[in-house]
Amino acid sequence: MNIEPLHQLKTSGFSTKGNHRGIGLSTIDNLIQQVPNILLETTIDNQLFTQKLTILTDKYRKFPS
C-alpha cells in the first residue's frame, strides 16, 4: 500500500481511514502556520508516516517574536 502525498493528507476532510475523519492533519497544519514557536517534522519512510511536534520555549525560540 502506498501513502498518499503529504499535501493530499493535509487536506481537510481527506482520510485513509474512512468517512467522518480527516481533520487532524489539516488542523495541525493550520496551527503551525499561526503559532511561531511550533515546529512540525514529517517523515514518510518505508510506508511509515511519522510526525514530530515540537513546542519551543522562549529559551529555544528560533523565530523572531
Fraction in helix = 10-25%
Spans where pLDDT lies below 50 across 5 or more residues: none
Compute the number of structural domains: 1
Q: What does the oligomeric state look like here?
A: single chain
From the alpha-carbon coordinates, what is the Rg to the nearest angstrom?
14 Å
- Protein structure class: alpha+beta
State the major sheet: 2 strands, antiparallel
The number of helical elements comes to 2
| Mean pLDDT across all amino acids | 81
How do the helices and strands follow one another from N- to C-terminus? HHEE
The strand line-up of the biggest sheet is 1-2
Quick take:
The protein is of the alpha+beta class and 65 residues long. The protein has two helices and two strands. It has a two-stranded antiparallel sheet.
